[in-house]
Amino acid sequence: MQPISFKRELPATIDVRLRGFELTDELRKAVEKIVTFAVDRYQTQVGKVSVYLADLNGPKGGVDKVCQITAKLSRGKPVLILEKGSKMLTTVNRAARRLGHRIGRNVQRQKRPDSQTFRESIRTV
Questions:
Q1: Tens of pLDDT along 74-102?
Q2: Is the entire prediction scored with pTM above 0.85?
Q3: What are the residues whose beta carbons fall under 8 Å from the beta carbon of 68, sequence distance 6 or more?
Q4: Among 47, 53, 45, which residue's Cα sits nearest to residue 14?
Q5: d(CA 106, CA 121)
Q6: Which CATH class is domain 4-124?
Q7: What pLDDT does 7 receive?
Q8: Distance from C-alpha of 29 to C-alpha of 15, rounded to nearest angstrom
Q9: Domain boundaries, the chain
């Protein structure tokens, strides 16, 4: 299992790791495009993205494709998304979409003042 790193449009590094199947150039480009599109809006907050793809049953088929995406943010805890499905690109797409939503929620939470600061601002008005 060799990590594959590439930098394109994002300042973040995208690492792809595989288990159970081979990484083709077509699959690598598709995963890169999907993940880049999902986190592009938050590129200043995202430091590194790791994508782990696995085919648990091999060529048997079924709901055995796993996509785990971890994004390390510049502030706050890392975001971890785990998705299972029967088709690899569909699974990656769902996981990346969830990753984008989760990063957005974390960024909005960081912008929100804590309860103590909020109470003090109300008292001064």
A1: 888 899 999 999 899 999 999 999 999 99
A2: no
A3: 51, 52, 80, 81, 82, 83, 95
A4: 47
A5: 23
A6: alpha beta
A7: 46
A8: 12
A9: 4-124
